[in-house]
Amino acid sequence: MHTDYDVIIRGGDVLDGSGAPRVRADVGIRGDTIAIVGDLSHATAKTTLDARGKVVAPGFIDLLGNSQSAVLIDPKLEGKIRQGVTTEVTGEGLSPGPLSEAMAAEMERTKPRGWPPVTWRTLGDFMRVVEKRGSALNFAFYIGARNPREMVLGDADRAPTPDELRRMQQIVEQAVRDGAVGLASALIYPPGRFATTEELVALAKPAGAYWTHLRNESDHIDAAIDEAIRIGREAHVPVNIFHLKIGGQKNWGRMPRVVAKIEAARKNGVDIAANMYPFTATSTELLSIVPAWAVEGGYLKFLERLRDPATRAKIADELRAGRLREGGASTIAVRGAATKRLDAIARELHVDPAEATLRLFEQNAKSPIAIFFSLSEDDVRVVVQQPWVAFGSDSGAVVTRDEGAHPRAYGTFARILGHYVRDEKLLTLEEAVRRMTSFAASRAKLADRGFLRAGMKADVVVFDPATVRDVATYEDPHHFAEGVADVVVNGTPVLRDGAMTGALPGRILRKP
User: Fold this and answer.
1) Is the torsion defined by CA of 136, 500, 116, 285 positive or negative?
2) Among 359, 337, 356, residue whose Cα is nearest residue 347
3) What are phi and psi of 300, to 5 degrees?
4) What pLDDT was estimated at residue 493?
5) Residue 347: helix, strand or coil by DSSP?
């Protein structure tokens, strides 16, 4: 029997991603493309989705998704799909390729259960592995600034020679030919933190765009933003700040000044924007609180240093004088099957928090992941309201629940729509959707995504604005977001009437 469309989404309030007001309309899809937005009351389709009483929008784009590991274990990536995410961009600081033999061996040593052998070496090779295995989501990739540094210099804390820098640039150029959408640095982690501004300018030029976890997100955030602006100016590329925030209680309330600094740069012609996750706790490797000198040479070298009593005592003293001073351990929770605060772990072990931290490292083949309660809700609210801020969960979809999670993995996009739009009224639904879709697509140069218009790729989400919400908490994170009814990726439903379909229509989105 002949049908007019493959999929019709009927009777919803369409938000096209531009920020324009919603309109009641049907959406007709042929193949992987939106064919029409209008009145399709007399048209037929192989599949019909009922969107009455709901909002129909372009699929959401997670600008820092981190599911590059998860997709090789469970390609359905349900925690992201149930938030309405249809595309993830990933590779903060360290991308899954390119790799040296030593990096591949370390990845093999520390890989999660269920991962395939690490057979790839280039970023293009990794993209093909994902394509072959399938994914419910689309993926685009940054080239991590750490990758060329580690391939050429290892873990050394030094600047490259001119010849080494040329080799590093060639590695970036190859990743861009493979389809990378920009260079991404993470400047608080070794060995990425060893890079100078000049090195990052040289690597950003061939990448065409610069994305960064700033060198400092607390006391010295102004200098860190100045560095990012300088890299954009000197490399002549757009700049994007990952998860814009300011940590440390004494810095709470400074975010309006940080925003003013970025807006001044924008007015002066710098193409700079940011993304964020809407939570007051961060999450990263516990290793990030260890002094830089102690981790030079990598994690195994760090564990070796802990076996020398004098070096161990020095590291412990620096922890006590640093992040663990004056009750700091009560603001850090270590993720696992049960997420526990560091001060509670120390009491269980009958040692002080510094010694407890060192024992946690000794019990793990790689750094445990921690949650840091260090942000102010008032500062988060300031960032949420900026028109040049998109969203990035900074978390992969959770596929192994014994490792714990941050609630942002399950709830970033639902929290914006439910808590900050509907409940707090800090921004309109139209504006929130614009920043999750067309604005995010423009920052990652995804030309055929982000708008719900004829000719665009058919990534679509249908949600109920009255019930959409995040349910995950820090103590009990493993709960899917609620209120998203249907998700279509490249014209194929992956979530239909609240049920996963098992389809894997996601693609690798390569920068042309």
Assistant:
1) positive
2) 356
3) -65, -40
4) 98
5) helix
Q: Which residues contact 211 (CB under 8 A, 6 or more apart)?
A: 92, 142, 182, 183, 184, 185, 239, 240, 241, 242
Closest residue by Cα to residue 469 from 433, 416, 511, 426: 416
Mark residue 175 as left, alpha or beta (left: phi above 0; alpha: psi -120 to 50; beta: remaining).
alpha
Task: Provide the 3-class DSSP secondary structure of residue 257.
Answer: helix
CA distance 466 to 470: 13
For 121-137, write each residue's pLDDT tens digit: 999 999 999 999 999 99
Tokens 């599949």 correspond to what residue? 47
Give me the architecture of the 60-280+375-446 domain, per CATH.
Answer: Alpha-Beta Barrel (3.20)
List the structure tokens of 419. Answer: 């808590």
Least confident residue range of 8-22, 132-146, 185-199, 262-276? 185-199
pTM above 0.85, yes or no: yes
Cα separations (Å) of 381 from 70, 240, 282, 332?
30, 19, 15, 22
Return the bridge partners of 369, or none: 285
Amino acid identity for residue 386 in this structure: Q
Evaluate if residue 218 carries a pLDDT over 90: yes
* Residue 487 contacts residue 59 (beta carbons within 8 Å): yes
- 486, 472 Cβ separation under 8 angstroms: no
Helices 123-133 and 162-178: angle between axes, nearest 10 degrees: 30
Query: Which of 174, 184, 166, 32 is CA-nearest to residue 98?
Result: 174
Q: Does residue 317 have a pLDDT over 80?
A: yes
Alpha carbon distances (Å) from 83 to 53, 395, 456, 484: 18, 13, 21, 7
H/E stretch holding 272:
strand 272-276
pLDDT tens for each residue of 322-357: 889 888 999 999 988 778 999 999 999 999 999 999
Q: What whole-number percentage of the chain has pLDDT above 90?
A: 89
Distances (CA, A) of 394 to 62, 242, 356, 461: 8, 8, 27, 21
* pLDDT tens digits, one per residue of 349-397: 999 999 999 999 999 988 999 999 999 999 999 999 999 999 999 999 9
State the Cα–Cα distance between residues 115 and 69, nearest whole angstrom.
8
CATH superfamily for 1-57+450-465+484-501 is Urease, subunit C, domain 1 (2.30.40.10)
Q: What is the pLDDT of residue 1?
A: 74
DSSP string, 2-41: --SEEEEEEEEEE--SSSPPPEEEEEEEETTEEEEEE--T
d(CA 229, CA 232): 5
Residue ranges of domains in the chain: 1-57+450-465+484-501, 60-280+375-446, 289-372
Please give the DSSP secondary-structure letter assigned to residue 270.
Answer: -
Is the torsion defined by CA of 280, 281, 284, 289 positive or negative?
A: positive
